[in-house]
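Case 296 in the screening queue. Each case pairs one protein sequence with one candidate compound; here the compound is heme C. For every case the pipeline is the same: read the inputs, emit a complex structure as tokens, and attach any notable structural observations.

Predict complex for case 296.
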Amino acid sequence: MKAKNQIGGLPDQSPNSENDTITMIQLGNKLFRDINLSSNQIQACITCHPLDGRSAGMDRQQTSRGTFGQLGRRNTPTILNIGFSNIIFWDGRRNSLYDQAIDPFVNPLEMSLPSESELLQRIQNDTSYLSFFSNAFPSDPTINLHNIRLSISAFEKSLVSKSKYDDFVMGNLQILNRQELEGLNIFLDVGCNKCHSGSLLGGNTFSKLESTSLYNSTDLGKFEVSGDPNDQYIFKVPSLRNVALTQPYFHDGSVRTLKESIERMREYKLNRYISDSEIDLLVSFLKTLSDKTKSN
Ligand code: HEC
Ligand code: HEC
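Case 296 output:
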């Protein structure tokens, strides 16, 4: 089966999660939801990356506001399935969840704590954390940045979604209807998976639109990290999993609908032209990538 070979299904567990225990995940979950860890105590990770109910790991804002109402620069990506991504952030400035875990607490556009030591102090002053640290790290329950990184990344790696599409590649061939199947075939035929590759359908390479005329010239993407002029306007190829639940789109949140996002993909090097009716079929296929507990 073409889809199985060329895209595949998402494994049940993220890579490098073998040593993550339930108690580490529970601590990570607590940290992720703790508004006391933002400068003015009103924002947590979950504010911009909501997960409960039908929320799919991002807040559906064009760009999110930080804890003082300050406007962010980039569209918040979903963190569902982030454990399968080697590139972290739109510009790739981090390459592991462990390295990234502390950034949002001290980012002046996000939770705005003055320092990492302030973060540690707030957690140390909250006695409800003691049992969580001793359960998660029985041999060394110290409240330190290392243990915080380990538990937040363990929590993030546990966020694996399962979709109708995965049931299909696991052999339930009846589950996709005619339009969805046609959309899948077009996806492979025009080569969307050259960039949105692997079972994550993206998340592991960078790319640049042929035409960046619509881009805001103050965000130079990967160039900001590498300083290499060839990296101007290069951004992470986003995963398409749960994409029907995470509008608006693109690194700047400037594209409102899936249809318009795909129209813009005509500016990339596709194998062939895609017609408007094919775009509708592609949208039907992309909807099958939504988590079943949250679906459209
Ligand atoms: C104010 C909103 C906001 C808050 C609060 C926030 N984030 Fe984010 N998050 C973002 C935005 C915006 C980006 C994309 C930034 C970029 O690419 O430059 C992002 C990116 C990420 C990514 C990378 C996603 C990807 O696809 O590359 C992870 C992981 C993440 N955040 C985890 C967290 C964690 C953990 C916390 C709490 C410690 C947190 N975030 C708090 C807005 C927020
Ligand atoms: C040459 C690489 C490439 C190809 C081929 C490609 N894409 Fe993309 N796609 C990207 C990049 C890079 C972005 C993000 C652009 C940005 O944020 O500025 C993106 C964004 C998207 C988005 C918005 C996702 C989001 O969360 O913001 C959708 C939907 C999408 N592509 C679907 C498709 C479909 C369907 C096809 C095939 C018709 C396709 N793409 C072909 C690289 C590619």
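Case 296 observations:
- Residues 43, 45, 47-49, 64, 66, 72, 74, 76-77, 79, 82, 85, 88-91, 97, 100-101, 104-105, 110-111, 152, 156 surround heme C (ligand 1) (CB under 6 Å).
- The CA atoms of residues 186 and 282 lie 7 Å apart.
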